[in-house]
Design brief:
Length: 110
């Protein structure tokens, strides 16, 4: 539900959005579509957001793509310092749509 809400809100702002329902599909989608930005949740089926982000970062053409991480966890609960370096922003749930839209606009501003 949250993914669909984020997707809808960003599409209303004119962004093209590709969705993935789990971490493995997120990596496949990133590989296929080469996005300008990735929004990833830490808790996903098949592959969690940490593993998926690491795999995305290993793709040569996506090493510098901004990744926004959303999570219900405190960063100190789950993430090592090394893992936190995977993302430009970590947003704690509940994420306000206006805050997410502002972060997306900040990274995609041309």
């Amino acid at each position: 539900e949250i993914r669909m809400l984020f997707s809808h809100a960003l599409k209303l702002r004119g962004y093209q959005v590709v969705e993935a329902s789990d971490g493995a599909l997120a990596v496949e989608a990133a590989e296929r579509y080469r996005p300008d930005l990735v929004i990833i949740d830490l808790m996903m089926p098949a592959m969690n957001g940490i593993e998926a982000s690491k795999k995305i970062r290993q793709l040569p053409y996506l090493q510098q793509v901004p990744i926004i991480c959303v999570t219900a966890y405190e960063s100190s609960q789950l993430l090592s310092e090394e893992d936190q370096d995977l993302w430009q922003v970590v947003m704690r749930k509940p994420v306000k749509l206006s805050a997410l839209q502002a972060e997306v606009a900040r990274f995609l501003r041309k």
